[in-house]
Amino acid sequence: MVQTLQVQDNMRGEENTPDPHELIERARALVPVLKEREAEAIRQRRVSDETIAEFKEAGLFRVLQPKRYGGYEMSPAVYCEISKTLAEGCMGSAWVYGVVAVHNWQMALFDPQAAEDVWGEDGDVLISSSYMPTGKATKVDGGYQFSGRWAFSSGSEHCDWVILGANMVAEDGDGKPEPYNFLLPRSDYKIVDTWDTMGLRPTGSNDIVVEGAFVPDHRVIRERDMFNLDCPGHTQNDEALYRIPFAQIFNRTVSTTSIGALRRALETFVETTRQKRTTYTGLKLANDTTIQKAVADVMLTINDLELRLAADLAELEQRAETGDWPIARRAQLGHHTTDMVSRCVEAIDKLMLFSGGKAIYSGNVVQRAFLDIHCARAHVANNPYPYAQNLGGIAFGLENDCMDL
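The structure assignment produced for this chain is given below.
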């Protein structure tokens, strides 16, 4: 089904690196398979082991991973295109891919010993996360004593490590708690099955519980360092790919899949509506000018979002090359991505509105996209209001108050 990609761990050359277009085509080849498995993934509330294995086999998780651990160090545009494509088959599966794969990029920011801990023996090891700063960390000799409970760890059952958030007061800070990320192996945490939701059910975004684990200093990273582009991993990973602000990459992880799901919903809506007639008059719905306008509006939304995404990703790469990151522009770029899912919500609502009574039955493609996209909007990184307020404040000469840029 998917061409096997033989990749040796710890390679440093590019002889086994596929062409970006080939990777995207591998993702495209998985779309019909994901459609077939979607209903079962929804029932099981998790992506299947088989699907994750095929993502690995296709090399999809390696797109943003450092080459020294078998990765490809490709453009974020390739990564986003893969996520968007997979979402045309199953948005929940694409969400898991996107969230898990982005951690392979973030590992380049940690102290190099952290990446060695994770991938020293196997470059295919996967990492989940929950960045909400709900943990409790106490400084001890050589590291931290760490405990807490976190929700929304997508794809965690398929991962052997996790990145978790906690607030701490930095020695060189302003005295106020600020967020840090802690990296832990599977032996240090439990996964608690809590994921029973209206949408994004295949993501298996269960809770993580840690009870008094020791986290060494080299597996802790300060979010301010990621904001300032001054991370421990930059001593080893100095490529432009890893000189992009963390939030500019991660926030697109949780917004891009909605575009793919919306595209699938639109194609399905048009196909099913083409021959549909009204129950009482027998008139073809395809001749209804209101429905025609709704389809045109959704087409325009998809086109606008894809153009904006492509332009923003190109700009991120260009700025990473030059190191030019003015805060006002970062605020604009941040607002662009956090507003994307809200626009997808407006578009899918139009399709749902005109899908008729049959759309309320489980399994309807438009309904699935409706539920999934609305659940994506609930993610904190897809709430446009704080980003819009910050951007507007900067325009009026106020100070930036957002670290997620």
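Interim note for the steering committee: DSSP finds twelve helices and seven strands in the chain. Residues 1-13 have pLDDT under 50 and may be disordered.
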